[in-house]
Amino acid sequence: MYDPHSIQWRLNFSFSIAALLVSIAISLIVGIIAYARIADLGMAVDRATAYRLGQLLIQSYETTGDWEQSIAWIQRYNQNLPVTLNPDIHPQFQWQVNLTKALNKQHILLLDAQHRVIFDSAQELTAGTRWTMIANPVPLVLHNREVVAYLIVESDLTHRENNQQRLYYVLLLIFFLGFGMTLFINLLVSIVLTRYIVRPLNQLAQASHALANDQPAIKLPVHRKDEIGTTTQAFNTMLDALAEQKKLRQQMVADIAHELRTPLSIIRLEIEAAQDDLQSPEQALTRIANELESITQLIEDLRYLSLADAGELRLDKHPLSLEALLQQIQQRWHSVTQKHQIQLQVKMPDTPVYILADINRLQQALNNLMSNAIRHTQGHIELTVQVNTTNCQLAITDSGAGISEADLPYIFNRFYRKDKARNRQHGGSGLGLAITQQIIQLHDGKIWAENRDGGGTVFYIRLPITLIAQPK
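Given the sequence above, the corresponding structure tokens read:
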């Protein structure tokens, strides 16, 4: 049973209405044309009869030299009486009469070459009367191409109307048969077509309901290349994305639990050690304060990412000198790099460049990258800048072991560590690069990483520039 609100019912109804309108339009056109042509058809039949009858009359005229025998024959023919003619003179006459007996009671008018009446079967015009009515008589031509007479044949009006009425009935019957067949065929085609269209939509609806009810949704087969096939493919892609998000969400919850469990375990151990007099309370409090600071930083990172995801993170952007920013980063990490015996090299741009940025957030992003670089290298770190007319590109290059190609696509994921066994004491919380990516994207920029051919990793940051100062 069809639902009147369903697409299938609406498509079937639309196809049926369209077929009905097309059938009615075709019927009206055919009816108008037929109505205009039926009268012409009757006149054409009369003219054809006149041509056939004229051939016989001209044969009789050529034989006798007058119209008397022809007139006598016309009178008998018009009264539907047996006609007897000399077969030697008229060898084709008898079968012609038999073919045209159905057209008896016709008005036959024979005129001479000057359009004077020779014979009128209706006895409305007397012999010798000049015929002046508008018509197109059939000329009777001798072998020498001389026109000796004209012939007009008009069917009886009642007989013609009866023939026209029968023709109307035949056309009406054809119309109803064609109309019924059109609707029947349209109904079959619409049912097959709508099922072809609606079946994948029903499958999408069932899969969506299963997904909404937290039931496992199965990927739908894609057998079509039209819009419905594209929609089905998009649905399957969405299922993959949702499955990946669910996996990441579960992993994130597990990572958060792990990140919290580690400092809490340390705090519990420090308290137990103080209670057992294995260390002084001051030592325990110092270590507990460090772990609480780590927990606080983790919570702050998570809050930052949640604000960024919700679109509620606001930046305080101002024109910022890129040279001043790099100098601050160099000063911030100078003592740390010296402590780890790492050479830090910063190449300033040749021309002063200004970007529109939140200095605190951008410093946070660069500090995250510097912290990672220091953690994974023992040689040198290099900061370089390339500038063109529209953007600037910062590169932070280290001389470490690099990142495996399998890990590169995932390093900006939250809680991702290329070394799964590394804890937060040596590898951080796994949120630094995710936060850095969010900050760069909020600045309308882009960040990515590549491995160097000679070893190490390069992190690229591309930011739009506000102004390039002209050198003095």
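Residues 444 and 463 are 7 Å apart (CA to CA). Try to locate this feature in the token string yourself.
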